[in-house]
Design goal:
Blueprint lengths: L11 H12 L5 E2 H8 L5 H19 L3 H4 E3 L3 E4 L7
Antiparallel strand pairs: 1-3, 2-3
Helix pairs in contact: 1-3, 2-3
């Protein structure tokens, strides 16, 4: 939940991504790990593109809270509970 509102994600992989990051809260999770877990049936390049798209969906769903809760670099992604409540 963000600001008392349930986060609405319709894409199954985006929900899975958010759930995985929530389990690994405040940890830098390698992008390759996430891509391999969620898109193992595709090429590495396609998996990373799908990860970028899902991260974009998660950011949009989190709204203003994304800036203070979802962090990423070219190598890792991290979710913080600063404004999010599980």
């Amino acid at each position: 939940h963000v600001g008392g509102q349930k986060v609405a994600l319709t894409a199954r992989k985006a929900r899975a991504l958010l759930a995985y990051l929530a389990v690994r809260i405040d940890e830098d999770v390698p992008r390759d790990t996430l891509a391999g877990l969620l898109w193992s049936e595709t090429s590495s390049e396609q998996a990373r593109a799908s990860l970028r798209q899902s991260l974009s969906s998660v950011r949009k769903a989190l709204g203003a809270a994304a800036d203070a809760s979802l962090f990423s670099s070219n190598e890792w992604v991290r979710l913080s509970l600063s404004l999010i409540h599980i």
